Amino acid sequence: MNRREFLKKGGVAASLPLALPALNSGCASSSPAQATQARQSGHLSWLEGKEPAVKAGTTWGHPWPQGALTREQPLSLVNASGDKVPLQSWPTAYWPDGSIKWTAHAVPAGISLGDQFQVKKERGPAPNLPVRVTTSADSITVDTGVVTISVPTSGEHLISTLSRDGRTISKNARLVGLVQDQVEPDAVAQVFAFQSQTQSVSVEQEGPVRAVVKIEGVHQIDKGKQWLPFTLRLYLYSGAESVRISHSFVFDGDDQKDFIRGLGLRFDVVQRDELYDRHVRFVGENDGLWAESPQGITGLRRDPGKAVRDAQIAGRKTPPLSEWPSDVSSRLKWVPVWNDFTLSQLSANGFAIKKRTKAGHAWINADQGQRAAGTAYVGGASGGVLFGMRDFWQLHPVQIDIRNAGQEEAEATLWFWSPEAPPMDVRFYHDGLGQETYEQQLDALRITYEDYEPGFGTAYGVARTTDFVLCVMGATPSRTTSVNWAREINTPGQVMAAPEDILKTGVFGGLWSLPDRSSPKKKQIEDRLAWQVDYYRQQVDQRHWYGFWDYGDVMHTYDVDRHVWRYDIGGYAWDNSELSPDLWLWYSFLRSGDAATFRLAEAMTRHNRDVDIYHLGRFKGLGTRHNVQHWGCSAKQLRISTAAYRRFHYYLTGDDRTGDVLNEVIDAGEALTRVDPTRKLANREPVPGPERMQVGTDWGSVASNWLTAWERTGDDQYRQRLIGAMRTIGGNADGFFAGTYGFDPTTKKLFAPADGEAQVSHLSAVFGLVEINAELIQLLDVPEYKAAWLRYCRLYNASDKEKIAAVGKAFGTHLEAPHSRLTAYAAAQNKDSALAKRAWKEFRLPQEFALQWTGDHQAILDVKGPQVLNPVVEAPWLSTNDSSQWGLAAIQNLALIGNAL
């Protein structure tokens, strides 16, 4: 019986409205449960289950219950064999009592932890090869005990030398790029080259296990224009032969004349070996390897002998030339030397390798494939550099160039925007269609769901981050080692605590629980939750949601007629955090510990923190509502830039770039002085303050930004801000039903409006307000605020009679099932069993027919043939709004009132 026959025969019955079949890849519903069981409580483990083959040094985050860890308490790590391992630890968040809430940890390279290990409250050993940092006026030197790098404090080079065993292996690492002033096919464009210019260098950590060097700068065109400001961090671990690099840049160009033609990281590699003892390697797909020498000696008309051939293929130094057959050694001058190699990946589904002898001569096609790993090696038997880029094909168009492999110094460039691709074009996608007035723009919104305003659909200020690794090798790596490094670069080893242990600490407000399939009804919900996550994971690949600006985001709403997501229709295209898919995925991961869920959530965070938020300019601190282009909508709002969506990633991983963005938005509320999100609405009630703050989307975002700043720093000013605002809301008779408060961005104070008609928006509680309020109420004792929030939670889904009696108005109830979690919260806080039953009714009834058996649209369809370009699985009734909000309601209801099922 196939899927469609199963559905037609009633496999999804009315009595089991949420039981959905798995997708083509297997039973998604069992995966998270299995992942949870695999993580042993009281132990740490690797996210993907097994210790990585490459032990490159790693960093992770760890939660602690309130009062369990003081600032003075030393920590150590005990590996699976019971041995103490060197550990570097630092706090990343604090509880209100000053005890540590989150720590970050780093372990050296080359040390086996095993599959399960533990952090202990005791002092651990020092590393055998401590990282040493030396600072001078013009450079910073970092020595891992294996590799030494020198970082100039100014100039064009990020790293001047990379050495091993006293020998310089590589030098002159720098950022390079190309920009052109025209992009239309019939235009004659001028192309300008640019490269990095360092403005400041600082040491953020200096060992003994991990050192971090932060470089800030710009790109400069000759000695003229400076643009594309960047922040770059170098991570070096004790005993490591590698340098991890995280690079973020902000686009600050003119989108009408600055069309980026190429962006890349370039460095030189010193060549000491004979031509035939040099090697170029590219890791392809499925652990495949393309490996050749600039001067190949296999396949010749005369055979150099098996020992010679085997050595070159393996990357070892070949026997002395005197031991070669003379009919080969005497004729090596006739064997071409291939100086230049290129691997280009211009789409998610195809790469090509080509090579040439030198400039001025033809390129020869060498091989092709689908998805290259983005890892390469250039050097010789006596050493070289293995290098790679994370999410290589996912962030296409990308390219790896190796030039002058036959010369004394080779040059390698890892392009994160390929110069062989069309130039980057970030212009707005239409001409405005005559929408000059707010009235016209609001009318257009009614048909395309796009909130347009001239000058607002700009990419000025958006960012992108790329991660690289440079491995300074003492010899050509074996084929297996090359592949293992490619795996580590693409999927860095991530340590994680067991879901049960994270839950016990009480972090993130207690709005989640472990998966529970102990009853048929709970199993229905759990299976649906797991299915939804897996459905989106597969949609990313089936719909090819990849690309430099796009990877990590998902689409908003489906087009059932074209069998595509509405990628080209106004506000229905890229989701941009609309209705909190970030929260849904992170809570899903916390519950399950599932690696695939983590990677999906992490990719979304890495995208949204950079691309969907403005980091410079007029809109700095704000994010962009959903649109055909990530920056296209004129609704620039705090609800997108909120720390509520990114703090999970920061605390779980210790990621410094995510930490930077959390810092950027601390005072994002000041942007309300530049952009009023309600400017297009007529007849707005005045507020007693210089700016307007919506009590839901704006306040929830500002509160999450201040809460995160307070946790991370322990600075009491943020606690005072929170308490003051909470008392204002709680002390107002209308509380959360007031809708809009006054806000002074200078003093950070809220002002209560005069008593008026209740203002209720179905969006107020679906952008993180529920989750942040749970934490605020947990951490801060402001009874009036808690009472106001519980009143809102109880009344939102209440009957019209109850609403009129309470606030004098029977406001409409939208998104009833998602808001059932508000009812559940009130029920749990008040221990009200009747309210708990009401919450489950609100949650379940709208879902009884959620599969929408209408016409030919069955619950889940395999669409093939001429209906679509490529075969896909579709659930045409499902939108990201439905998934994220339904998912959050399910997760939180189970945690709050699961015993009422």
Topology (elements, then pairings):
Layout lengths: L2 H6 L22 H8 L5 E3 L11 E6 L12 E3 L5 E2 L2 E7 L5 E8 L8 E5 L11 E4 L3 E5 L3 E6 L6 E6 L2 E14 L10 E16 L3 E12 L4 E12 L4 E9 L8 E12 L7 E6 L5 E4 L13 H9 L11 H4 L10 E8 L2 E7 L7 E6 L5 E6 L2 E7 L8 E6 L5 E9 L20 H11 L14 E11 L5 H12 L4 E3 L1 H7 L14 H23 L15 E2 L4 E2 L15 H12 L2 H14 L14 E2 L11 E2 H4 L5 H7 L2 H9 L26 E4 L2 H17 L2 H16 L8 E5 L4 E3 L17 H11 L3 H14 L3 H8 L8 H15 L2 H12 L16 E3 L8 E3 L5 H18 L4
Antiparallel strand pairs: 1-7, 1-28, 2-6, 3-4, 3-7, 5-6, 8-9, 9-10, 10-11, 11-12, 12-13, 12-17, 13-14, 14-15, 15-16, 16-27, 17-26, 18-19, 18-23, 20-21, 20-25, 21-22, 23-24, 24-27, 25-26, 29-30, 31-32, 33-34, 34-35, 36-37
Helix pairs in contact: 7-9, 8-21, 9-10, 9-21, 14-15, 14-16, 15-17, 17-19, 19-20, 19-21, 20-21
Can you offer a commentary on this structure?
With 901 residues, the chain is α+β, with helices and mostly antiparallel strands. Helix content is 26%, strand content 25%. It has 21 helices and 37 strands. It has a 20-stranded antiparallel β-sheet that branches. The N terminus is likely disordered.
Overview in brief:
With 901 residues, this protein is α+β, with helices and mostly antiparallel strands. The chain is 26% helix and 25% strand. The chain has 21 helices and 37 strands.
